[in-house]
Design brief:
Elements: E1 4-7, E2 10-13, E3 18-24, E4 33-39, E5 46-52, E6 57-59, E7 67-72, E8 77-82, E9 91-98, E10 108-109, E11 113-118
Parallel strand pairs: 2-11
Antiparallel strand pairs: 1-3, 3-8, 4-5, 4-9, 5-6, 7-8, 9-10, 9-11
């Protein structure tokens, strides 16, 4: 089991950028999939982006071309670079760590960081 701590959220105007960070208490090198999800008020949690241990990425349709996920195994940190932000990107963003097979203590979730985009 690992602990995930998100940071980098805040208030930004539409069109602006933010970079979120997810620091993991353990090594992420062997974790199959690291990801970012978000949950807006009154809505279900949705996929933002994932990155595998091999570096393959996947993005939700609403963020393709604007957001970039990356991982630094040496720092045990996953990043989400968010550009061209829109008011509809406003949500709590959660970091996630998971394996493709059941592993005790996984999936692991962070506490979330609030991103607010003003129009």
């Amino acid at each position: 089991q690992v602990q995930l701590v998100e940071s980098g959220g805040g208030l930004v105007q539409a069109g602006g950028s933010l970079r979120l960070s997810c620091a993991c208490s353990g090594s992420i090198a062997s974790i199959n999939v690291m990801g970012w999800y978000r949950q807006a008020l009154g809505k279900q949690r949705e996929l933002v982006a994932t990155i595998t241990s091999g570096g393959s990425t996947n993005y939700g349709d609403s963020v393709k071309g604007r957001f970039t996920i990356s991982r630094d195994n040496a720092k045990n940190t996953v990043y989400l670079q968010m550009n061209s932000l829109k008011p509809e990107d406003t949500a709590v963003y959660y970091c996630n760590a998971d394996y493709r097979v059941p592993v005790f203590g996984f999936p692991s979730w962070g506490q979330g960081t609030q991103v607010t985009v003003s129009s």
